[in-house]
Amino acid sequence: MTTNLPVTTGHQLGRRSWAEPWKIKMVEPLRVTSPDQREHALAEAGYNTFLLRSDDVYIDLLTDSGTSAMSDRQWAGLLLGDESYAGSRNFYQLEEAVRSAYGYQHVVPTHQGRGAEHLISQVAIRPGQYVPGNMYFTTTRAHQELAGGVFEDVIIDEAHDPESEHPFKGNVDIARLERLIAREGAKNIAYVSLAGTVNMAGGQPVSMECVRAVRALCDRHGIRVFLDATRMVENAFFIQEREPGYAGKTIAEILREFCSYTDGAWMSAKKDSLVNIGGWLALNDRDLFEEARNLVVVYEGLHTYGGLAGRDMQAMAIGIAESLQEDHVRARIGQVRYLGDLLARAGVPFVRPVGGHAVFLDARRFYPHLSQDVFPAQTLAAELYLDSGVRSMERGVVSAGRDPATGEHHYPRLELTRLTIPRRVYTQAHMDIVAESVQAVYEQRESAKGLVMTYEPRYLRFFQARFDRL
Ligand SMILES: *Cc1c(COP(=O)(O)O)cnc(C)c1O
Fold this sequence. Notes:
This protein has about 475 residues and is an alpha/beta fold.
């Protein structure tokens, strides 16, 4: 009986391994550096892994954004780029791909996700309105605040607890959202900003039951729901795996159903959609779409290219279709879990359950002797780089920034260092190296002293801040 099963479904039965549903036909050499070189490079970078040169990095787990390997079909698609200023054929292919995969009516292309976040924030937020969301995302909240919105976190409490094994830690706390609506009035809510596989919570999914409840509540109050669809495909995988009634549905079906409960979405195609650059905003409301389509011309480019080359839109259209293949998603998340299993065996503290795109080390428990004022997650990213040249990123107090009203640091409960796995790029052997390095840093954890911030940019400070050793 088991011999008829495709190997890639084996892991669901707990008996067989998954494997990548591709083979490699082009390679890019990696550079291994010496401890002295890393010491020098990190000091030059102000102890901020964002400021390292990639030539000084061995295994790059900074982000899964724009770092995917494209398929041969996507590369072939680049040659089909129609670089006409207006009416590019590739735009219509992209529009069709978004409509059929995500189900929205109208599509505005943007150069990447934050271009779409800018547009939706400008057209859908009036200054002073609240924007409730299931935890913040850095660029999303920045654009909402620049448009005069006031972000309010309505995620469930379990999301802030790295040890909670809740299967859908990205869920909205419906009672909390209801209280906000009662407190401020529906007219003072711009929209609900719902994100799939919540990045800052550790790549944690939202259930179908939750999005249905959000929809029902918002319908009663005439409030719109917009989705950050950046990692919604990965979210669909978790629904298929964990939510009763969805085991027999395809990822594509689950994605369509989830999106059908929302009024539109913004997308960083640099994640799920397997391209190096690109994004879009999709809306069902014709009037809102007209406004966004008008604004895109001001900030991104004409509404049939939105800051992208025709070839980029072609690669994105193909990437959308590839991202929905079941064996792709299973292998992608399988690799993230593989790393999580190695770290669990080594006793390293990280956010449970392992999320879709990354393992998030719990810097609070890793360095219990360091307070958030000396940036434990930033320190951990620095130590990991020094040990092996593996690049990770901070998702803690530095990323959280300051409260625009009081000027104080936001002190998030989650102080995390993210090991983000690019799609289709690294092998299992690379994951072994990463796990060994994290373990080595963990063994020396008591000697870590923390960092002091010496330069702080005004916006999205984690990208460009500089630090020194304490
Ligand atoms: C990356 C990301 C964005 C922003 O997209 P960019 O393409 O980086 O501009 C928005 N939301 C989430 C959840 C993301 O991960």
